[in-house]
Amino acid sequence: MDRVIVKKKWNTKRILTIAGVAGITALIILSYYSTSGNSKLNVDTERITVSEVKEGIFQETIPVNGIVLPVTSIYLDAQEGGRVEEKYVEDGAVMKKGQPILRLSNTDLLMTLMSQQNNVYNTLTQMQINSNNAQQNTVSKLNQMADVESQLKEAERLYDLNKKLFAEKVIGSQEFRQSEINYNYYLEKKKLTEQILYQDSISRLQQATQDKQSYAGSQQALNIMQKKVGDLIVRAPVDGQLTSLDAEIGQNKNKGERLGQIDVLSGFKVRVDVDEHYISRIYPGQRGRFTFADTTYQLEIKKVFTQVTNGRFQVDMEFVDKVPKGIRRGQTLQTLLALSDERKSLLLPRGGFYQKTGGNWVFKVSEDGKRAYRVDIQLGNQNQDYYEVLQGLQPGDKVVTSSYENYGDMQELVLK
To answer: Residue 87 in contact with residue 76, Cβ under 8 Å?
Structure first.
């Protein structure tokens, strides 16, 4: 007897077919999600940092390192070359202005000084000789003047007498004319002698002036040489501390060579190195702050050195209001230098995400806190704590700010 055979619904062939279709469908779905930008990654919330966007006061700052230096440092250079004969003090000594530091010797300078001293002596001697000769010459001319005046008086007396006698016809005309000629001769001779005496006085005055100028010149040269010899003893130019002394007994030092340095102890400044990227944004009057012994202090830029060396330039900053107690020369201070004024801004805490995104996008956490999805943003300036948000986020938004290095090209994070 024939029997009806029931056809099985789930035979092996059918099961394999369905499984194959399902696998292909899964691959298509997976491919779709991976190419459509909806790739997801499960993330443990304990391994990430979530920060809240908020409004606050923002100031753009950069961290810089500075070295504490005296406000004024004076370099000691050899005014004259010579051999170091004696040292009166050592490094670190506190000096008073004019106090000797070391003594040099220079034979050539001493010989030149002696020669100049002889020159001054010879000039002075010649001045005395010239003065004596001029005086004798003047006395001689005065004597000549006295003789001429005496002869003129006698000639005048005889002329007046003969004039009367000639008028009375007591003497002849020849005798009268002779007395008249003598009188006129001595009259002219007196005038000539007066001119000679006047020229002598002018010549004597000129000679005296020249002698004084010559003596003053030689004396000035002597004073200069004495100063040069005096400069062989190096003295402190101001009150301060001798912070370096590069000289040993027996060592030869050339003129202009650096011998040491004196720091004025009236205050300190901070010399700061700044990256050349900021050279157009740094100017006198900008301020910075640093913490020393749990207290915050202010610094202000006083001078900008625009010369760039190894990609950096320097600025000098001085303390505002007060100087920290216990601060020392050569100490390094980590300072936050302000590049802008304080302003109200939308702030996003700094984090490792920036290295991956460049500040162009972030993972923003959903309102229920179960996922974080990628959103485009725009950041502005930054300081040591925050980025300034210009676009893409609102106050109260929460953002994953830890590193994105392990997220690849994921578009969404599932927070577990």
So the answer is: no
